[in-house]
Amino acid sequence: MNSILIVDDTAFTRHVLRNIFESLGLHVIAEADSGEEAVRNYCLYKPSLVTMDITMPGMNGLTASRKIMELDKDAKIIICSAVSRHDTVIKAIQAGARDFIAKPLQLERIEWAVQKVLGTGVNVRQGDRQGKQIAEVLV
Question: Is the pTM here over 0.85, yes or no?
């Protein structure tokens, strides 16, 4: 089963992402609220996918993404950020991100990114859309 590490300094956003992933039938293995904790949790849990915010106190998401990629060149990271300027998206991809999702988060966009990054064989439940309204909240 694919496992997810959610990294965001905002508890509400982590909660929204957890609800989205669970509504899609995916397993959230851990959460982190800083880049440092993200790197530690990546080493500890070896998740299939990491969702990473950029702006966090201490180590930001771009630095954390680079460190994770140094540890595992096959790591799969999706950046989820409200900072979505063109140069920021390019920096995220250069840091190793496989995709960039601009906030506010939307269920369909997250589902598409997860299927793209993890592969077409990903088992994402189609019937349970309880997270849809939560996912469209401005975060």
Answer: yes
